[in-house]
Amino acid sequence: MNKSLIVAGVAIIALVIALFFLLSDSSSGPGELSREDQIDRQMSDPTQEYVEQDGELVDGTDTAVSYEQVLEDYRRWAKYPPNSRPLKVGFNDQIEHHWIPLEPKVMPIVGADGKLVEGKHSCLLQPLNHTVTEGQVMDVTLRCAPPAEGAPGVPIEIESIKLVRYFNEKEWQVPTPEVTPGTKENDYTYKLTYTPRKEDWGDMDLTVNFKVPSEKNNFTHTLKGHFFSSPVAPAQFRGIAGERIDEDGLVIIAEVAVRFPGRYTIEANLFNDEGPVGVSRVDARLNAGPQNVEIKFFGKVFHDQNAPGPYKVVGLRGTQDTAPLDPADLNKSPEEVEKLLAKLESTEPHRRQIPVWTGDYQTEAYKLDVFSGAEWDSPQKRERLEELRELAELAGE
User: Fold this and answer.
1) 330 and 390 inside one domain
2) Can you give the pTM of this predicted structure?
3) Which residues contact 263 (CB under 8 A, 6 or more apart)?
4) Distance (Å, whole) CA 109 – CA 93
5) Which residue from 125, 224, 258, 322 has the highest number of Cβ atoms inside 10 Å of its Cβ?
6) Any idea what the CATH number is for the domain that residue 325 is in?
7) Between 241 and 20, whose confidence is greater?
8) Span 193-200, mean pLDDT?
9) How many Å apart are CA 31 and CA 222, to the nearest integer?
């Protein structure tokens, strides 16, 4: 078997990855996690993204790996099904799923020689959600302070605010956010509040020009921010209809009222009194009207997390995929996929967001022995393992 089998179909895989970033909004990363945790949290096989580069096999972080390591990585990842993974402290993009925290930036000033030099203030323009949904407003805070940790905020003079919606190469001006000035009582944290109209669907770019009077050099600073606006909800969560145990683990039944039929991704986190336990996802084609969606949490997750119940459902969330290319079409032949891509035309943003459910639901107090601790198994897993074993053996010759 040729080693290139590990990247068999790389052109298609690369295409899928490219389409993911083109047709959906990016999300925050998990921060500094161990290699094992990075693997555990993935909902798609990370070894499918390992490629040969300059004669070496590298993983998704461009770190050189052996074929034996690839096999071990896959074994670790495939302990759980792709759509039900452990949730751990540090998996911030899943636990704090509603926002993308940013770092303050040291703002430049004009030096004695007329060139820009590092200033004495760090400023942060922070959207408090990555997406504004129906019935909500988007709040963005602006604060400046000396770079020292815990330093108090300083007054700001906002000169101008520009907010535009963009899609492909087009831009539209949208209503300017309202400004609530910072005060000494709130540590000079200024708040910009944007209320979307029904037509304000898509990516939003925010530009704020401001001065810091205490710098006494009259220099205008600029910060930019980004968020997504989904002002018409494609569906609404009505609550949790119940739960049950099956051979795979714990099933949570979510009630959804669907306005627009189509392709949906529904996710939820599960916590117990000790902290995060698991995150699960279901991809489904939903018809219009009220219906139930079953979200399955795999049994081995509870054992490996040493997490008996009761459990609390947190962060029930969902997205409608409105991209013009149906992911199912990628299973067609390369020739058919190429023809589809040639005809691909984007005429609207590629997702709508369901407002996050904020209700409370707690399960029964399950003991761990009600769940199977067996690893996930499937024909696809066994086929992939055999392929990687052969590659590891060839590499060791």
Assistant:
1) no
2) 0.86
3) 283, 284, 285, 320, 321, 326, 327
4) 34
5) 125
6) 2.60.40
7) 241
8) 96
9) 27
